[in-house]
Amino acid sequence: MTARRRSGPRTSRSDGRPLRRQGEATRAKLLDAALPTLQEKGVHATRIDDVVRVAGVSHGTFYLYFANKQELLRALAERCADDAADVAAVLPPISSDAPGRDVLRGWLAAYLTYYRRNGVVIRAWSENQFNDRSLARMGTMAFRRMAATVHTSMTASAPPGQGTGRTLELRATALLSLIERFAYTVTSRDLGWTDDQVLDTLAALVHRGWFGGTTT
């Protein structure tokens, strides 16, 4: 699979002037401030007023870094896609023994961290909340890239009888969809379980069901 070229942090302001370190920090602060508002109100109802209030900055500061709300959403989508590429890149083949389960658990922990940071954007993609087709395509490509990585891992470690080609592609898509929904469930509400409990259980189920795990 060809490695994705990361968009990386933006190096210029909305007026084209280069960003310095403080400017990069302010821009990141605005991106982070948008997340709880998007979580509460959704993509369409979120306003720039909401973002600057959470960030504790002025409207003038916002417009130094983003021309409008759409540009802010694009920056969030690009950051999410970059994070997805990073998570996809660290999944190796998973063996069916206990060490393989431990490797899988580590990758699931990385995915959970990714989802906690980007869950609002991921849900906007899955629920078709972006009117911009290019943003929607970005979400589709991010999902396909990660599913392709899962498929590659399955192909390299598939036990006899689990199939090849399109069958494994479907299994990989089903697995990634399950993990994504599971991550939403455990990060969107307090169900009383620790991350260790969640990861131990998910790793055991996925290892047995998708990688032929033979350990308990």
Task: Summarize the topology.
Blueprint: H1 21-45, H2 48-55, H3 59-65, H4 69-89, H5 98-126, H6 133-157, H7 166-187, H8 195-211
What does this structure look like?
- The protein is mostly helical and 216 residues long.
- The chain contains eight helices and no strands.
- The protein folds into two domains: 50 residues, Homeodomain-like (Arc Repressor Mutant, subunit A, Orthogonal Bundle), CATH 1.10.10.60; 136 residues, Tetracycline Repressor, domain 2 (Orthogonal Bundle).
- The radius of gyration is 19 Å and the shape is elongated.
- The chain starts with 20 loop residues before the first helix and ends in a 5-residue tail after the last helix.
- The N terminus is likely disordered.
Overall strand count: 0
Order of helices and strands: HHHHHHHH
Structural class assignment? mainly alpha
CATH superfamily of the largest domain: Tetracycline Repressor, domain 2
* Sequence stretches where pLDDT stays below 50 over 5 or more residues: 1-5
The whole-number mean of residue pLDDT values reads 85
Output the number of helix runs: 8
CATH class of the largest domain: Mainly Alpha
Q: What is the approximate shape?
A: elongated
Largest sheet: none
**End-to-end separation:** 32 Å
The CATH topology of the largest domain, please?
A: Tetracycline Repressor, domain 2
Beta fraction of the residues?
Answer: under 5%
Question: In percent, how helical is the residue content?
Answer: over 70%
CATH architecture of the largest domain: Orthogonal Bundle
Write down the domain tally. Answer: 2
Instruction: Indicate the radius of gyration in whole angstroms.
Output: 19 Å
